[in-house]
Amino acid sequence: MNINITFWVPIIVAISAMWVYVDASGHKIGKTPQKSFFNIGAEWWGVACLLFWIIAFPCYLYKRNDLIELAKIYPVEPKARNLKIGLFVLVCVLRIFI
Predict the structure, then answer these.
(1) DSSP line for 55-88
(2) Most exposed of 30, 32, 85, 86 (fewest Cβ within 10 Å)?
(3) What is the pTM of this model?
(4) Does some domain include residue 27?
């Protein structure tokens, strides 16, 4: 069985980046008044995971529970969430095939 890793890696990166955006926006994770290196909105978590997956995805998983707890105190309602999900899917599909 021949597994082509160059085919699967972009798919895994794109799907996990999409999941990060959907998860973060669904939990209303966003920029808060507190100062932190991880104080970014859901869109930027998704973009960071798409561009710097090897660093950003593990960081999101590590900080996810803290970010969710912070979002309960400072919820950020995502604007045009469905449109952003659609655009994110389009970018991810393009990233897979280009």
Answers:
(1) HHHHHHHHHHHHHHHHHHHS--PPTTHHHHHHHH
(2) 86
(3) 0.85
(4) yes
